[in-house]
Every structure is written in C-alpha cells, then in structure tokens.
C-alpha cells in the first residue's frame, strides 16, 4: 500500500513509520506544521509545534529512508482546533483539543489530502488497534493499557478507520522505545509530550486568560445559592475540580468542595459536595459510530476521560446521532463538551459529545 | 532523477572540482609571511584576479565570502553601519519586496526601509525609484536584484544605477542568479553579490564586489582579511574553484542563453499542449530563460512538488526554505498574485546538464500529478469550520 506516515518528531510516530516501511508499504512521511509561527526551539518548548520537532521528524525519516515533507496545516489547525478550544471554554464547556485535531486535522484534512494525492492509508503512532474483518474496520483498545488511545480515536468513525493504520496498536511504550533504539532513531529517549501542543508551557489558564481576558464571577454554593467567593474567569475551572477554588470558608459539613457546574451566561461557578458530582445517566449528541449501532438494553461501558476508567452502563436510548446510557457503576464529575466513548469489551462502539 | 532545480544549486563543474582538489592539498595560510604562506596567498590572489577579469571589475574591489547570502548581508548591513558611523544616521534602505531574503531580512531587521513599487512582472518602477530618491531625504542604499531567483525577472540595473549615481546613493545588486545568465553590467553598482555553487563551483563560497568608496563596515572582525571587509582565514581552495566556475559561467553566458531559451519554449509549449493543465506562466517573457515559474491553477504547489518528487522529477516551489514549511511566495505576492495563485506556483530551472529529454520527462508525469494535486487543493479550500 501507499502509506502516508504522519510524523510529529516524537518516538511513537517515528516507530510507526519504521514499522509501516518494514512491513513493505511504500511509505512517505509528512510532518504537519500546525503553528503559524513555529518557535525556533532550543528554548525548551515541547509538543508538535517547534522547528526542532520538524527536524527530529526529518532525521527519523532519513534514518528509515523514506521521503519527508512538511505540510502547512497551521491555518486549518488555528481555525478548527485552537479557536474552538477558546470558544468552548468561553461557553463554559471543557473541550479536548486532541480529539478535535484527530477529527478535523489528522484524520480529515491530512487523510483526505493523502487520499486525493493517491495514498491508500495514513499511519500514526497512536496506541490503538484497528481490526479489518469482512471489509469492516473496528477500533479496539491498544495493547498497552497505560497508553491506550482508543478514546481519542473513537471520533474517527468506521469510514475513516478503514484508511487508518496504527502500527503500534499491540505494543507497549517500552517495546517502542527499544525498537527506536534498534533502528538508531535519535528520538528513542525523547520524553513524551503531555501538554497541549499549542500551549507548550503548560499554562492553559494563562493561555485562556490572554484570549478571553479576566472574566470575574461568583463562586456559588449549589446547596444554599449563597455566593461564597469570587473567581477571575470560568476558564480556570473544570467540573470535578477540587484544588484552586481559593475559598477561605469551609463548607457547612466540613467536607471538601468541588466544582459542580459552570454557568457561562452568569459566569457563576457552582460548588458543592463530591456526592453532588455523582451522575446516574449520561446523554451525548453528535454521535459517531465505529460499527453497528447498539440496541437499547445493551450492556456496555462508558469512558469520559482519556485516562479514566470505563464504567459499566446500559443503553437507555440511541439514535444515529445520539445516545443516553444509565450507569451501573460510579462516575463523578461529567462536564458538557467532554467526549463520551462507549466500549463493548475492548471494542469501541461509538463516541458522542456530552450535552 | 530528472533535475530541474538548478537555480537552487547545480552540478559541480569538473574543472572547478579539479582546481578545488589541487588547491586543497596546498598547506599554507595566506596571511603567513613564509614560503608556505606566500604560496597560498598567490593562489588566493590569482583566483581573485581571474574572477575579477571575468566580471570585468578591479581585483581590489572583490572579496571572497561564504556565499551569496553573506555577500548580501555585508553589503546591506555593512553599508548601513558604515553610514551610521560616519553620519550618525543610518538612513533608510529602498528596495522592492521581490528581493531575496538575504537582502530583505538584513534590510528590515537593521532599520527603516522604503518599498519600491514593482509591476506585475516584478520589474521595479523606475519613476517611483526616482521619486523616492528625490523626496526621501535619507536613503542609505538602494537594493535591486539583477535577476530574480523565483521568476527570472531581469531588473533595469543600469537605469536604476544612473538614477542612484545622480542622487549620490549607493546601489547594491544581488547578482547570484544573473551570473552566467545575462551579460553582467556592474559599472552602475557600488556593490554586488555572487555565489559559486549556482554556477558550478562549490557551496560555501561567494564573492562580494565592493568598491573602496562604498563605505561598507565589516560584519566579522578579527584580523582585517579581505581588504578589512571579512576577517578570518580565507578558504583558498574554495576561492580557486569559485574563480574557475565564474570564469566558465561568464564565458558560456551567450551559449547558455540560447540553449535555455529552447528548453523554456519546449516546456511552456509542452505545458500548453497538455489537456486540462491551463498553465499560467508567472515569469515575464523578458525573464532569463533558465528560470520558468509556472502556476498550476487549483493546485497546491507543495503537493505537486511532492508528487513530482515521487516520480523522480525535482522542481521547486520557489526558493528552497530552510525549515521546509511551504508558504506562499513573497515574490509572487509582491507581483500582485493572490495567495492561492502564489501557492500554486512551481519553479523549473535549467542547468548545463539539462536536456530536452528532461523537459519531456517532466511533461510526461505532470498531467497525473496535476490532477491529484487539484483534488487535494479543492479539499484544503474547504476545511471543516
């Protein structure tokens, strides 16, 4: 197959590229330039937006012997990922920019461009497995439970999964690093990036404050309705957050307080007891399915965070574009805008955005 | 591999290679006073004299540098610095936006600039230059690239030089692409930049023509080498090889012009004959024939370049960029092309080794590549909101 390998400059995508090439595919490497003004690096910045990352990606491609190009997707990234990230926080929701990037950049802009240019598939360094059976593609959890990225890939849906290759799917991070060493890749020991790539210093609140300005509002006790404090902007808060509330008075019960909800219009942050975070059912819209739709009554599992556990659930309602599940296990702190992914065992059933 | 990117770099001439290797085995620092030093010094000065004779300039006005970019930087930054030291005012640099980055960046980073208008062919508006020289009180330097590296546009350097001379303002020309492509007319300029590897010499060697009266301060100090304009032990072997390449390039200019004009016609007519390509030739008809800039409407040139690369045809999307991030050409933008038009442009450039078969090979793979690149171009015009 003619395979386009998306290489970020990190170890995972480099080994994915190497594996695709050694599997006999005709591989071309592409590094996506996502920053409109790439930092000349050497300043310690990490992520996928620096010139040194492009350099690392290029050197890995040289080493494996595949042609390498840089595609400028900065404008599409700014419009569809960064602007959306800011707008979602402005609206009091909690977006996941990596999911948005997978949906609109890596497996849309990049995949479609690759398709138009004559490539059969796009390979990335994600830890998830795609199984092809009888012309259908299904998405499964990766072999390394600690690295599994099926949650952020669920948004691809079956059509795009058919043209996705995840060569690291069954591997562990340790295996990947050892293999990178064996290939002689300089990125073998490069640290993992954990930050949001367009906020390389990790200061998400500062990034949002620069773009949204100070937006002071009240912190309200959800039980009494009383204003018990002030905050400088709702973007500093996520549902389920406990630290950093800056409340001097203890709660009546003496138990710690958590963010229960964010009201974008009034700018109020509602806080309360951790038990108030418990949810019994979850409704989500804008669904994308990675196979046949489930049926009402199906016993599945729901995951709402990239590194959270899946909670057993039962399908209460389902349409092509939405689902509601009743939870059979405990789940706390669900925020609008989060991605809800349904699993059947290790297979991804579908994904939707919590409404 | 069909190589049609000779404006980026071209084959090393065998004569330059031989001279280079022979000189590389000579031990001696040209600054040393002993026999070994004298031997190296002699090689260096003979190289300077050969290059100067070929360029019809005085050897005392010619220094060796690390390349065209350094030569441009010395001329732009050094002129400004020298003027600031003497007049206590750096003044502005007047230049068109179509200049090479090696001129644009030092001009913009070191002080104020006055932009000179260009027409749709990228040719400078001489009336505007005359007006700027008349009305702007403090122009330190005018820069005008003799031949543009992306489009092959030839600037009216002589006419501009006469205006500058009458106004008492120095004129610098980046002649990197002009060398070997057009008869050089260096009389009207105060400084000029050349590069060896664009004409079959080694990379890492350039020349700067700078008359003693140009008032240029050095950027690199530490020993007063090269008439005090560039400190550091000279690259003798590089200079020798560069001189050989310059000499041959100048001697072959007329013959090359004829050969390249035939190749250009073959390429342009061939493109027009291909169904559905609808090429837009961005290079003006008066451009040097060795550089042909062509727009492929609806395509993104970086995708097109990648597909041609896969088909073993090497072309460029403009000037080779260090980070490799494709951006719309600043030259085409300055010529009034839209960002989409600027992003759709490929540069084909010819060299000594280019044959009609090379052009035909490129023409053979273009229809499929253009069709695919157009599909990709339509997509990026409509990315999800």
Structure description:
The complex is a heterodimer of chains A (355) and B (385). Chain A is an alpha/beta fold and 355 residues long. Among the domains of chain A are: 2-125 and 167-189, Rossmann fold; 214-276, Adenine nucleotide alpha hydrolases-like domains (SH3 type barrels, Roll), CATH 2.30.30.280. In chain A, 26% of the residues lie in helices and 28% in strands. Chain A is built from eight helices and 17 strands. Chain A is globular and about 65 Å long. Residues 41-48 of chain A have low confidence and may be disordered. Chain B folds into two domains: 2-8 and 253-380, Aspartate Aminotransferase, domain 1 (Alpha-Beta Complex); 14-251, Type I PLP-dependent aspartate aminotransferase-like (Major domain) (Aspartate Aminotransferase, domain 2), CATH 3.40.640. Chain B has a seven-stranded mixed β-sheet, sandwiched between helices. The mean pLDDT of chain B is 94. The interface between A and B is medium-sized, with 22 and 21 residues.
